[in-house]
Fold this protein.
Amino acid sequence: MDCIDIMQEMDDKVVDLTITSPPYDNLRTYKGYSFDFENIAKGLYRVTKDGGIVVWVVGDKINGGFSMTSFKQGLFFKDIGFKMHDIMIYRKKNTPFMRTNAYTNCYEFMFVLVKGKPKTFNPLKERTVRNGIERLPANKKADGSVRKVWGELKSEKTRTNIWDYAVGLGGTTNDKIAFQHPAVFPERLAQDHILSWTNPGDLVFDPMCGSGTTCKVAKMLDRNYLGCDISEEYIAIAKQRLDLVLKQKKLLAI
Ligand SMILES: C[S@@+](CC[C@H](N)C(=O)[O-])C[C@H]1O[C@@H](n2cnc3c(N)ncnc32)[C@H](O)[C@@H]1O
């Protein structure tokens, strides 16, 4: 289905988190492609709960220069009432795309849009390099010397807003069938956002779900989910991936 039609069937303020990635300019030709960005954005605003989040994973077509479509979309989201809560980076650890007259592009944006103030934030942590009690710099005196005091370095800290993922089979996903879709994002990316912005039982939505990554991970993490794609072929892939979840949950003993 076209996601505009599916959103029209949804009540106001029902979605806790949307994670989605739209077609980037005309970089890929999706079957049945039709992309009415402005009406999709307005639909997302209406169906999102107060305090709910939309993660919009987007890159620009690079053809002699960046198209800047992503920025235009970001500004439109602000115009219709969303706040740009964060502009995060999805960095690909392995990327084949090279430019002859510029550095290799290795990232996409993850716009974190919020309706009001975020109602849920479960910060993901990472281990610090050093921890324990140490003499730590406290303040710099006028002569440039630094005063040190005893303090504790914690064993973990909140992650930064640049997230690295390996891409391709084994990185993006282990589901071979997913690669019948041309533009899958990593399961871990979906997982990290779902853990950050929702709790079990919340509703996670992907209006352009492609191979079903968002839905699959939401199911793995005991969230409710709703996915839609305009292509029947991609929905068939998504359904097969969702069928793998029970088996994979048992393997991971979740
Ligand atoms: C970048 S892909 C999403 C890939 C997905 N994140 C994944 O991991 O597989 C964009 C998807 O949007 C779908 N699409 C394009 N226009 C649409 C529309 N109006 N309604 C629903 N889906 C649409 C395309 O068929 C395509 O599968």
